[in-house]
Amino acid sequence: MVTLLDTRAQRAARHPEKQKRPDSEMLRKPKWIRVRAPGGARFEETRAIVKENHLVTVCEEAGCPNIGECWSKKHATMMIMGDTCTRACSFCNVKTGKPVALDPFEPANVAKAVAAMSLSHVVITSVDRDDLDDGGARHFVETIQAIRAAAPSTTIEILTPDFLRKAGAAEAVIDAKPDVFNHNLETVPRLYLSIRPGARYYASLRLLERVKERDPNLFTKSGLMVGLGEGKEEVMQVMDDMRSAGVDFLTIGQYLQPTRKHAPIDRFVTPEEFEAYETIALSKGFLMVSASPLTRSSHHAGEDFARLKAARETQQGRSQL
């Protein structure tokens, strides 16, 4: 039997840097946020493949609300370079601490799992590894290369750290030619100090811009959480900043507070407000926008990639008229 004391100890082990923070109120989720508990044969099959290959998934580590839906479709977002992050973002449920050395077999194991699940599209993300000279860029490159060899028909989407102060790291990953390069801005500039203190808004924006400068054909993607206290005008300014950086695909989802020690939810944004954000973003020129309470960066990523390619083809066709 798991006691409340056990649960608190587990949370403290995952987030030691947050334990001196006062507890904040956990707001009751509205009906449009609730999802079914995960389970079923295909869910268990996906779990078995992940465990057999000693993989970490952001689905589990970040407590994604869509894990039941995605794993039941044999979709999983692989998280490389371990389960421990060197950053301490106040919104994130991934463990914080001193990471272990990189697993040299991980790229091959990820590729093996991708092939075993017969994925048409895979999303690869990672923890932040500020302890590494290149921020883990080479590991991303090796993982992309391993997937290309084991599952050549699978399209690859990467969700990367910011590679802050890691010269040449982003360029190495861009040159590995994933199909989609995703880096989330997460929130509006005003909230960075409290929500994403280890990052810099304009450094993240510049990373996305550099992707397009180096490889204009590579799709770029970025995401925002809402419900943290941002204003509508601030969200629209971030949209403009993303478009100036050439971002193709925007995702917007509701922030969900993992524990009482994490950043509190300011409010639950309504489905109607998400629809309005999507309409505004499309009018600003994004090829695709996914905005809903349960939208996450990798949710429906395969289907979205097909739609993203079709949107670009349509746009190019219009430009030739």
Brief descriptors of the model:
321 residues, alpha/beta, seven-stranded parallel beta sheet, two-stranded parallel ribbon, 12 helices, 9 strands, disordered N terminus
Rg estimate, integer Å: 19 Å
Question: What's the rounded overall pLDDT mean?
Answer: 88
Side by side, the strands of the main sheet go 1-4-5-6-7-8-9
Structural class: alpha/beta
Helix and strand sequence: HHHHEEEHEHEHEHHEHEHEH
Let me know the number of strands.
Answer: 9
Low-confidence stretches at least 5 residues in length (pLDDT < 50)?
1-6
Overall morphology: globular
**Helical content, roughly?**
25-40%
Taken as a percent bin, the fraction of beta residues is 5-15%
Biggest β-sheet strands, sense, barrel: 7 strands, parallel
Distance between the ends = 67 Å
Count of separate DSSP helical elements = 12
EC number: 2.8.1.8
Keywords: 4Fe-4S, Cytoplasm, Iron, Iron-sulfur, Metal-binding, S-adenosyl-L-methionine, Transferase
Subcellular location: Cytoplasm
InterPro entries: Aldolase_TIM, Elp3/MiaA/NifB-like_rSAM, LIAS_N, Lipoyl_synth, rSAM, rSAM_sf
Secondary-structure topology with pairs:
Blueprint (H helix, E strand, L loop, with lengths): L3 H11 L26 H12 L5 H4 L5 H6 L5 E3 L3 E2 L9 E2 L9 H11 L4 E6 L10 H14 L4 E5 L9 H7 L4 E3 L9 H4 L5 H14 L4 E8 L5 H13 L4 E6 L16 H13 L4 E4 L9 H19 L2
Parallel strand pairs: 1-4, 2-3, 4-5, 5-6, 6-7, 7-8, 8-9
Helix pairs in contact: 5-6, 6-7, 7-9
